[in-house]
Amino acid sequence: MTERVLVNQLQARADGPVSVSGWVETVRDQKKVQFVILRDETGAVQLVNPATRELEEGADAAAQAAHALTTTISELTHGTFLTVHGELKHDERVKLGGVEIKIGTLDIAAAALPETPIAADSGLDKRMDWRFLDLRQRRNNLLFRVQTTLEHAMRTFWIERDYIEVHSPKLMASASESNAELFSLEYFGDQTAYLAQSPQFYKQMAQAAGFGKIFEIAPAFRADPSFTSRHATEFTSIDAEISWIDSHEDVARMQEELLQVAFQAVKDKHGDEIEELFGIEVQVPQIPFPRIPLAEARRIVAERGYEIPRTDGDLDPEGERQISAHVEETYGHQFVFITDYHPEIRAFYHMRDPETGLTKSYDLLFKGVEITTGAQREHRVDVLVEQAKEKGLDLEHLEFYFDFFRYGAPPHGGFGMGLARVLMLLLGESSIREVTYLFRGPTRLAP
Amino acid sequence: MTERVLVNQLQARADGPVSVSGWVETVRDQKKVQFVILRDETGAVQLVNPATRELEEGADAAAQAAHALTTTISELTHGTFLTVHGELKHDERVKLGGVEIKIGTLDIAAAALPETPIAADSGLDKRMDWRFLDLRQRRNNLLFRVQTTLEHAMRTFWIERDYIEVHSPKLMASASESNAELFSLEYFGDQTAYLAQSPQFYKQMAQAAGFGKIFEIAPAFRADPSFTSRHATEFTSIDAEISWIDSHEDVARMQEELLQVAFQAVKDKHGDEIEELFGIEVQVPQIPFPRIPLAEARRIVAERGYEIPRTDGDLDPEGERQISAHVEETYGHQFVFITDYHPEIRAFYHMRDPETGLTKSYDLLFKGVEITTGAQREHRVDVLVEQAKEKGLDLEHLEFYFDFFRYGAPPHGGFGMGLARVLMLLLGESSIREVTYLFRGPTRLAP
């Protein structure tokens, strides 16, 4: 590599020759002096060049070069990637980091077309059309650094606790959750394959395989025709599953500790910059998170004056916001586990409490939005088959899944969590589209 | 959670009450004493119970319980998951770890059907049908721990060097590499989506977005009808891409350092166990890895007496084995970079050396098998379009990709590496099917 210096290393560096690479953010082409703001993945720096506007006849090579450089800078387009070799100089008067670089030579790697199709304030859909330009914004760059830190903290948490990472297949012969919203494809002529809606069945398989504790962060697919700020047809799912639990409480305890550790890592590494660019103070959650049984949550929401229109006994999005507002006001907490869901509104594989008849499961809400469903799973195959039958499911297509439990299985449970939802809420963004590298929705398959 | 103790913690624990959970590996039901070997994700332990075969009339509760326990143990099936509360006792005579547990109570979580459909020596296809049972083998459990360590070491290497982790979409409107071997699906009626064959275009997009250095570990899909030991229709691809390189050499240097660090982590954590269960000594590769231009590699292979039947100038699998054997004999090295491929046998986006006309790319061979293609990419859009045209590609469908380079882009390059191939070779396995959690091939879509 060239001896490239990153912009965030310039302040600590002594005056002298230096080489930086990045893209042109702005050019101020004044008569006597030219300024270029060059940005790289770590920051922005001011480049300066005393303009040589006129070339006298018989000018020497140096004068010719100076004139050529001035012309090159005058013609620089926004977004052009280039490398500058020059002289670094500390100067308190320079607002941008207190340094500037006097340009010696300038090498253009790839010049940008003159008309940039979007600006920072373009509409979301337009920005998504040109996502690679949109991602050059500082806040978007930060966003994916936050994502990186968040995920690495979670994986490290698990690996320190001897979890195994699995890569479960995304091509399946049957539906993993339900037959609705399933992408199907022709598989070598006579077979039909489906895209995994979640790693649910396969992470349970790892429990029957004696893996003990596992995690996976991977894409999941839902042919979901909805256009809300929280849904995508392809999303990154954060999944964990653990054996030998007593109830979903063991899962919840693992998850709250995980989130505490991960948020702490984000705050430590990016807290100041998040505050600067997103206006959000990252709150590291206290554990334990509050827990509220669903029936009580509904009572509280009703007492706050909101009547949930759903008749199935679940919360709706406004109900989720209301109960989270209550928790924030009462406990000063941004998270809440809602527990004790009726089997009718839960998947067939959720274990039921023999005393209450309710499922041993939870939803986790963060700032009023559901980010997770967790549960103890039913590992007794006779009960499991009975519950599937009760839901009217196609038992034949579930046989491969039931098999997982016919040769022994431990009590187990886990959760699935949407990465984009966590990021959206953590950074106070309005849609998962803003926090997804390349969003996929019913009318969005490109770029 | 119950106060479950993992089997590998028993040796260090004092004699006394203890609770362990796992699955039944064997039962020796002798007349006077019963032995159960219980395995969990960390090891195996011997459970012992003095048999109470007869129950006298008027026997007390304790005698009844003892008789019931004896019966339960006699009826235990292989694979049954259970928890035992008992008394831990250190005893040098016990071969298995020098400890045993006298059973107090025994709780069956889920009893296994009596006939286990596979044994450790069953054929590969049969074992894949019952993969969840196959995975209970110690070597398979270790295999996925090795995978976990390998990946975590790689991610940590990158994150310590400020790489951004991306999740590129697996649903695309166009092919990412070629139109061959592409899975397509109906996307909301009137659209066609394709499954990503690699994250190639989208990791390059991150370079135009100014991300600098990125990585991704994610599934990739190829509708590849081949049945070799090295191919799958779905596989885990390890990808990295970096900006401001001078040539593919910068990519190769990053990759060899990455592999050295990752192999060291595997050796440190699992070296002894790999030697015990796979009979393989993990060799941490020295850097730099040897580099051999393709033309020279072909000469060497020919001198060894092997005539490559391919006429396109590339190596074939036997040629790869031959050149690797040469490198092993000459340099004692298991890795070799083959460089300087002709553009005809490389993707259109590989940058070409203006002097030689050859691509600035490499293949990395490990123990005679290709595990990676790496290259500097062509970032100058006019040259890129020309190269695509020369290959006879459908330019219209590549417009979205060309756009990435029209608004400025840095010189960049990267590599893609197949996780399963690395694991297969590292552990001396004969097929990627053995090292994939759930293999997917033309006739394999289940379980």
From TrEMBL, chains A, B:
<dbReference type="InterPro" id="IPR004365">
    <property type="entry name" value="NA-bd_OB_tRNA"/>
</dbReference>
<dbReference type="GO" id="GO:0003723">
    <property type="term" value="F:RNA binding"/>
</dbReference>
<feature type="binding site">
    <location>
        <position position="370"/>
    </location>
    <ligand>
        <name>ATP</name>
    </ligand>
</feature>
<dbReference type="Pfam" id="PF01336">
    <property type="entry name" value="tRNA_anti-codon"/>
</dbReference>
<dbReference type="GO" id="GO:0005524">
    <property type="term" value="F:ATP binding"/>
</dbReference>
<comment type="subunit">
    <text>Homodimer.</text>
</comment>
<dbReference type="InterPro" id="IPR006195">
    <property type="entry name" value="aa-tRNA-synth_II"/>
</dbReference>
<feature type="binding site">
    <location>
        <position position="177"/>
    </location>
    <ligand>
        <name>L-aspartate</name>
    </ligand>
</feature>
<dbReference type="GO" id="GO:0005829">
    <property type="term" value="C:cytosol"/>
</dbReference>
<feature type="binding site">
    <location>
        <position position="373"/>
    </location>
    <ligand>
        <name>L-aspartate</name>
    </ligand>
</feature>
<keyword id="KW-0963">Cytoplasm</keyword>
<keyword id="KW-0547">Nucleotide-binding</keyword>
<keyword id="KW-0030">Aminoacyl-tRNA synthetase</keyword>
<feature type="binding site">
    <location>
        <position position="222"/>
    </location>
    <ligand>
        <name>L-aspartate</name>
    </ligand>
</feature>
<dbReference type="Pfam" id="PF00152">
    <property type="entry name" value="tRNA-synt_2"/>
</dbReference>
<dbReference type="InterPro" id="IPR045864">
    <property type="entry name" value="aa-tRNA-synth_II/BPL/LPL"/>
</dbReference>
<dbReference type="InterPro" id="IPR002312">
    <property type="entry name" value="Asp/Asn-tRNA-synth_IIb"/>
</dbReference>
<feature type="binding site">
    <location>
        <begin position="418"/>
        <end position="421"/>
    </location>
    <ligand>
        <name>ATP</name>
    </ligand>
</feature>
<comment type="similarity">
    <text>Belongs to the class-II aminoacyl-tRNA synthetase family. Type 2 subfamily.</text>
</comment>
<keyword id="KW-0067">ATP-binding</keyword>
<keyword id="KW-0648">Protein biosynthesis</keyword>
<feature type="domain" description="Aminoacyl-transfer RNA synthetases class-II family profile">
    <location>
        <begin position="144"/>
        <end position="447"/>
    </location>
</feature>
<dbReference type="InterPro" id="IPR004523">
    <property type="entry name" value="Asp-tRNA_synthase_2"/>
</dbReference>
<feature type="binding site">
    <location>
        <position position="377"/>
    </location>
    <ligand>
        <name>L-aspartate</name>
    </ligand>
</feature>
<feature type="region of interest" description="Aspartate">
    <location>
        <begin position="200"/>
        <end position="203"/>
    </location>
</feature>
<keyword id="KW-0436">Ligase</keyword>
<comment type="function">
    <text>Catalyzes the attachment of L-aspartate to tRNA(Asp) in a two-step reaction: L-aspartate is first activated by ATP to form Asp-AMP and then transferred to the acceptor end of tRNA(Asp).</text>
</comment>
<dbReference type="InterPro" id="IPR004364">
    <property type="entry name" value="Aa-tRNA-synt_II"/>
</dbReference>
<protein>
    <recommendedName>
        <fullName>Aspartate--tRNA ligase</fullName>
        <ecNumber>6.1.1.12</ecNumber>
    </recommendedName>
</protein>
<dbReference type="InterPro" id="IPR012340">
    <property type="entry name" value="NA-bd_OB-fold"/>
</dbReference>
<dbReference type="GO" id="GO:0004815">
    <property type="term" value="F:aspartate-tRNA ligase activity"/>
</dbReference>
<dbReference type="GO" id="GO:0006422">
    <property type="term" value="P:aspartyl-tRNA aminoacylation"/>
</dbReference>
<dbReference type="GO" id="GO:0017101">
    <property type="term" value="C:aminoacyl-tRNA synthetase multienzyme complex"/>
</dbReference>
